[in-house]
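Cross-posting from the modeling subforum.

Setting up a comparison between two proteins and wanted a second pair of eyes on the formatting. Protein 1 (sequence, then structure tokens):
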Amino acid sequence: MFLGPQGLRAGWSALLFVVLLYLFANIFGIFVSFLLTNVLHVELAEETAASSIVNESPWVLGLAATLAIMARLERRRFLDYYLAGPAATARFVSGLISGFAALSVLVGVMAWGGWIRFNQAPHDWAHLFRYAGLWAVAFLLVALTEEGSFRCYLQFTFTRSINFWWALVAVSAMCLWDLIHSGSHGAVGVYAMSALGLVPCLYLHLSQSRRSSFGQAAWASSTLFGFIHTGNNGETWIGILAAGAIGFVFCVSVRLTGSAWWAIGCHAAWDWAESYFYGTADSGFVARGHLLTTNPAGSALWSGGTDGPEGSILVLPIVALLLLALILLYGRKRRDFASVPVAENVAS
């Protein structure tokens, strides 16, 4: 029940990972809050780069502590969780360029169609450069937390044991949760992501490929990635579907490059370009201190409305183009990386 051919079974590992991450993040959060309030006597305004760094730092520290403990329990190396692939620096830089370019194409198309408008930009360059650096740090921490959780540990853990039926149970549970909780924003996006993965994952299951578990894991983890964003104010179903779709692209990048570093770079650059460089909304969040200033115009279907560019229907072809570029760039160089775990012999 608890142990399998590769040690602690994946379900228990994932549960323990979530519990430890939440516990450590809160412990570090209490320490950081005490340090700022009682030692440094600093009060930070909401939605600033500094407050984002403070809020994300405990999660990165908690993730590092959790991965270290899980690696010890599972008798693995810390870097085994898709962090030890070849040319990590080159992959990270490539991800940075890809993320910024993809978001820029999206904003450019929206501006060409009249669905986003640029307002007069501020001219305080000293503050702008400062904000650029601070937001870069903040979004790098966000990327490390989310990619470290979803594309590193959970994708690795699900891959070593999940099959079609368990993946189906997982995505069905997410759909049921959103169905009975009226406070979930953009829940249709979770339903759509679940439906889109159903036939391909069923085909992988019927083909009985030894590597099909990676696809099943990608379906579950990507849907989960969209699912956790339904708690954000300002989300739409397109934004949730886009989050799940970009999560799938990040899973593919892990498979093609052997590590999560491309995904980390792409994630950080996409958020930085969206919130700081172009000054658009991001799931209802508008950053304080940004280079350009933009406002949505016209139908929310095309402009994204309060969700920002991620809520525009145009984001979906952009994500598809990003996936195509990733395959063209790394697909021919793909090989079976040693860090990709072999699935356990689970009942199907």
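Protein 2 (same layout):
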Amino acid sequence: MRLSAETTAVVLDSTADLPDPAARHPNWRLVPLYVRFGDETLRDHVDLTAAEFYERLRVTSVPPATSQPTPGDFQEAFEALAEFERIVCITVSAKLSGTFESARLAAEAIGGDKVLLVDSASASAGIVILAESIQRRLALGTSDGEIESAAERFRREADLRFTVDTLDYLVRGGRIGKAAGLVGQLLNVKPILTIREGEVEPVKRVRGRAKAFAEFEQALVSGSEDDPSWHLAVAHADAQADADRIVATIERVRPNATLDLVTTLGPVVGTHGGPGTLGLFWFREAT
């Protein structure tokens, strides 16, 4: 089957931190995860915006928790896309969340082979970079095999750097991964982290925010080229000034690269990163 943007829907989970995917592309849809404050459960980016979440986080005495969509949530979303012949569902890393498994169960439940599942092995803006890559292929006409090959190359070659103000949120949410060895070692030190093979991994430690910015720039310069085929994105957790600084760095050192997205981490990703988290993503589109 030849796939196009007219015949194929793209479903993202809300950890992509794109609150209204259909406004970006008419064939894109959102399935939200959940964030809980005590007994109150809210849909990520639907019932609770990023701004509302960080405002609430400052004053709450109840630490938030998160949960994946149910298979029923995905099934409802898939069944609502009856006008499309094919659905490409792109999820957060399966090593960070059970979201991919919920989507898999939903795809099984509706039967047939309508849904093509893609584990991004990434999170937040990284998912959007991959989705945009797939959308460009759909615009030209593509196939399942070409999409799967593109996703595999993304998982292998895409890169990112992110830093957090504290590892407490990653520890509390169980997403610390291979960075666990840094816990208790961060007095005035900023961890520089990445996601490799779908899980959080430490890169290095630097002292102070200024050196963290310098590390981001060095990693971008050494890991990319100044060409439109390089697609970049920035994500932050209630740290707009820091995001603006990263964007200014991109404009200075990679003025010809393509900046796909600047976004605020939503309630679910923000629960695990914590306020002050800052991330820079990059990937070269095959030509």
